[in-house]
Amino acid sequence: MTDQAPDWLSVVQAAMPLVAALIAAILAIPAYLINARINRNETLLAKRREVFATYVTAVQFNMIGQREPAIYQEAYANIFIYGTDDVIRAVSAFHEQMADKVGQIDGTRAADAYAHMVLTMRADCFASSKLSLPELKTLLPFKYQ
Q1: HSE value, Cβ hemisphere, 13 Å, CA-based, for 142
Q2: Which residue in 97, 107, 96 sits closest to 145, CA to CA?
Q3: Under 8 Å between Cβ of 76 and 91
Q4: How far is CA 55 from CA 37, 49, 104, 129, 134, in A?
Q5: 58 vs 54: CA distance, rounded Å
Q6: Per-residue DSSP letters for 27-85?
Q7: In this structure, are residues 131 and 122 in contact, taking their beta carbons and an 8 Å threshold?
Q8: CB–CB of 98/135 below 8 Å?
Q9: 49 and 43 in contact (C-beta within 8 Å)?
Q10: How far apart are CA 79 and CA 61, in angstroms?
Q11: Which of 4, 31, 37, 107 is 20 to 30 A from 70 (CA-CA)?
């Protein structure tokens, strides 16, 4: 009987490396997809932080009179590409408050809009923040006139 056909145990033993490789490959696919998604999210988060910082810097330069319209417009446009819905709404509200209103800006409303925008960006980029809107308004790096 040993010359006619291999017994089932030797067939199973011979197939084990192939079965193990197949199982490993099947399990590796979801792991790869999860890892790729995590990497993509981390890359997007880093880009958001960069875009938000660029926009806030452009706003601050405008506030101190060093206007660079091209830089501001590019930073503002990038918000619409990389920002979440909440950030886009907050930035748009701030932009609307400030656009072409030199000399007629309501300082309280502008400070509210700026603080809300910053808090929204922080919520998007960081897990949590303990700053409240009124507290952040007192800490703004400049005052609206």
Answers
A1: 14
A2: 107
A3: yes
A4: 27, 10, 22, 20, 22
A5: 6
A6: HHHHHHHHHHHHHHHHHHHHHHHHHHHHHHHHHHHHHTT---HHHHHHHHHHHHHHS-H
A7: yes
A8: no
A9: no
A10: 17
A11: 107
Length of the chain, in residues? 145
Angle at 141 between CA 91 and CA 61, to 5 degrees: 65
As given in the structure block, the two tokens for residue 89 are: 């709404």
Task: For residue 125, give the amino acid letter.
Answer: C
CB 123 within 8 A of CB 85: no
Assigned token pair, 67: 């206007």
* Matching residue, tokens 């060093």: 66
Q: Which two tokens stand for residue 50?
A: 């960069």
pTM over 0.70: no
